[in-house]
Amino acid sequence: MFRIRQVVAADLDALWDLICQASAGMTSLQIDKETLQDRLELSTFAFSRTSEKPEGAPYVFALEDQSVGKIIGTSCIFSKTGGYQPQYSYRMETERASSTTLGLEMLVHSLHLVKVHDGPTEIGSLFLQPDYRGRGCGKLLSLCRFLYMANHPKRFASQTIAEMRGYQDAEGHSPFWDAIGAHFFKIDFPSADSLSMVDKTFIEELMPKYPIYLELLPRSALDAIGRVHDQTRPALAMLEAQGFQRNNLIDIFDAGPVVACSTERIRTVAESRLANWTNDPLADRSTPAIVARGTPPFLAIETVIQCNAAEGSEQVVLDLAAIDDLQLQSGELVRYIALPAKPA
User: Fold this and answer.
1) What is the pLDDT of residue 221?
2) What percentage of the chain exceeds 90 in pLDDT?
3) How far apart are CA 151 and CA 129, in angstroms?
4) Which of 109, 173, 183, 229 is catalytic?
5) pLDDT per residue over 65-91, tens digit each?
6) Dist CA 1 CA 207 (whole Å)
7) Taking residues 138-155, what's their average pLDDT?
8) Number of domains in the chain
9) Predicted confidence (pLDDT) at residue 228 exceeds the cutoff of 70
10) Do 72 and 157 fall into the same domain?
């Protein structure tokens, strides 16, 4: 059985061993152990606080394989981006240019550096141990965040974004970085990616302040703009199914796309339901679902439930294993989102 839970300080060593497996381009995981410890401490406080105001805190989740007592994955919500350390992106713009002398009319494409201090909520830092991929664990790691957001809507901004990992070639090189960032920072892509999670001042100091015209870039860099890493395609498809759409922003280092959705319109946020639970079977059919505690501490599992046929059912039937995994006591609520039935 796999279970999502909120992290605790004692998870430091296990999470460090896990994220050391993450490759360059997973920006929010390119951190040292001290920074990870700080993030866990901030997350522990964020989960325990009573205020419902967005304050930029990280909410870090761990996925456990309970059969072996091991953390095999992690994901995170950054409740608000920007602040003292602003968020940087490139905004893509297109303008029309013409010449009567040459009888020419054309579209000119450019990138403009954007700095945001009061930004949206961001989801990220999703990483799953490779040998557990393809077993539904990635879906649980991703969707559990939206159940938590539905439990605490006032803790998060009105819009949620995700910066998708950009394209890299078979040798791990980013063509977009090679065409732009490498010329201004004089360090390699992994080093810049890691440094940006600790101190972003070098971006402000060295990044070009004027637009970058795409017509001047090599074809390899142009082809990378808005293209996701091969390993990121499933995550992008999952977010698109939740209502996220591409906007005109890309990552300044690898040109990965930024996708966004109104927080209240994220499918799991909008369609999940709070319900009472029981262990008394109903006559209705069973439904696969992700179920989380409706009250702290946050725990979530994928399981099979029974619920009333009427939409918005206020009672679900859980088996004893699910009740035990969620550590439910009589009178506590659960939040669930039904999943599509698996093909026979």
Assistant:
1) 97
2) 72
3) 28
4) 229
5) 999 999 999 999 999 988 667 889 999
6) 47
7) 96
8) 2
9) yes
10) yes
Dist. CA 5–CA 62, nearest whole Å: 5
The structure tokens 């409740």 sit at 79
What is the separation of C-alpha 28 from the centre of its chain, rounded to a whole number of angstroms? 10
Antiparallel, parallel or unpaired: β 257-262 and 245-250: antiparallel
State the CATH number of the domain containing residue 184: 3.40.630.30
Give the residue from 264, 282, 309 where a domain finishes. 264
* pLDDT score, position 22: 78
| Among 6-15, 21-30, 227-236, the least confident range | 21-30
Is residue 241 within 8 Å of 79, Cβ to Cβ?
no
Identify whether 229 is a catalytic site residue: yes
Residue 256's φ and ψ, nearest 5 degrees, are: -65, 145
**Residue 194 sits in the same domain as residue 323:** no
Q: What is the 3-state secondary structure (H, E, C) of the chain?
A: CEEEEECCHHHHHHHHHHHCCCCCCCHHHCCCHHHHHHHHHHHHHHHHCCCCCCCCCEEEEEEEECCCCEEEEEEEEECCCEEEEEEEEEEEEEEEEEECCCCEEEEEEEEEEEEEEECCEEEEEEEECHHHCCCCHHHHHHHHHHHHHHHCHHHCCCEEEEECCECCCCCCCCHHHHHCHHHHHCCCHHHHHHHCCCCCHHHHHHCCCCCEEHHHCCHHHHHHCCCECHHHHHHHHHHHHCCCEEEEEECCCCCCEEEEEEHHHCHHHHHCEEEEEECCCCCCCEEEEEEEECCCCCEEEEEEEEECCCCCCCEEECCHHHHHHCCCCCCCCEEEEECCCCCC
Do residues 167 and 255 make contact, with C-beta atoms less than 8 angstroms apart?
Answer: yes
Using only the alpha carbons of the chain, give its radius of gyration: 22
State if pTM tops 0.90. yes
